[in-house]
Amino acid sequence: MTALDLRGLAFSFRTAIRGATQLALALAAALFAGHANAQAFPKSPITIVVPFSPGGLPDIVARTVATELSTELGQAVVVENVSGASGTIATSRVAKAKPDGYTLIAGVWNTHVANGAIFKSDIDLVQDFTPVGLIGGAPLVLVASAKVPADNMKELINWMKANPGKASAGTVGFGSPSNLLIDSLKRRTQTDFTMVNYRGSGAQIQDLIAGTLSFTVSNAATSLPHIKAGTMKAIAVTGDKRLAIAPEFPTISEAGFPDLEISQWVALFAPGKTPQPVVKVLNAALVKALQSPELAARVEGYGFQLAPANRQSPQALAEFQKQEIAKWWPVIKEAGIKPQ
Hints:
11 helices
């Protein structure tokens, strides 16, 4: 090997060492920056967007959680209601927000599962959001008018089959959990009843009490006082376990329909590509917040059940959302639910 070759080899070796050193320094700088950002986050107030009007269950849960998060994060956590188009306005806004952890959304079954099968949108419900953590869920209650001669699911189905066209069922909002569940029940049981669409829950509850509506699906907070008053009957709870505030109500699975389990769950999502160190800070604060006895007492009064510890991680929420999409998109498409 000539002297010229040796000099060339030495130059190549020095160049390789320099490149490796620069790469190592760049990686170290990136790691340090990520750690520093996580340590500094949050520096200013955080906004949780609720995709519905004030007063509903997602709003109540979000505001209750926001109070605890403010304490854990040392910054104000404010709730902003952005309603309209079944939650698609809010999801589009948050998906396109800066992915820095300062804008979150209280995602629910409608916005982060059903809407993807119903609406045409440039938003991908999985790719355009970063899961932060599942807060929990509230199963619905299938309730019947006190005038309906049935006290359980079997009796209700038998009565409808014996009286085709006589029964009527109320729904609130196309593509809503109640709408999908009642439509699925009709097809599963091959019963003949009229579906009546309402703009709000108040009118259908009044009709149910009056006996002009046979049954509907409602949240526990709305229906429980009327059930206790004897003006309506609880047929089944749509969750995977019985309600803590009304353990006497059987679940839909116990009634023989495990595929109709559905819950009004609420979870926190950040915009897609939010840095993982920031997500880690947000999730840690959420997990700590959900340990508050005061928080649990308030939301459980509405029939809301906090997620168990093993389901509160971002990874668990990501998997749960994918499972819900895989379960319900085919059902929604089979039912032919379209925007109205």
